[in-house]
Specification:
137 residues; mainly beta; Porin; 9-stranded antiparallel sheet; 1 helix; 11% helix; globular; disordered N terminus
Amino acid sequence: MKKMLFIALFGLFSLTGLSQTTITFHQSNLPFLGVNYQFGQRFIPEFRVGTDTFFEDLSAELAANYIFKKTDRFEFYGGAGLRVGSFDGIVVPVGLNIYPFDQKDFGFHIEGAPILGFNDNQVFRGSVGIRYRFIKN
């Protein structure tokens, strides 16, 4: 699992190293770190890795998010994805990205995501956090 996670992260960073990427941290009872790349104006696939856990218990997610409403101050999004590790299942994130400052690289977010487990394990994860966009000039 550790090798697969390292290869996935290295591949994602090398593909998007010169592109507009965003790094996020979500604080919740199931905290995670995410990296995404925005395709066009609306589609944002994101790779997420659980934090505050032992390497043997790492969880990973791949979520495909779509921005439904976008202004210069916020983005409202929803999507679906797959989670492996603890609480294996389908994840359905719905959230709000907020950019309150004039420079739109740093912001905040709030997200709710039911995790529909494959083994009848169901959990609703709510999170808040920070985000940083590497904006191309």
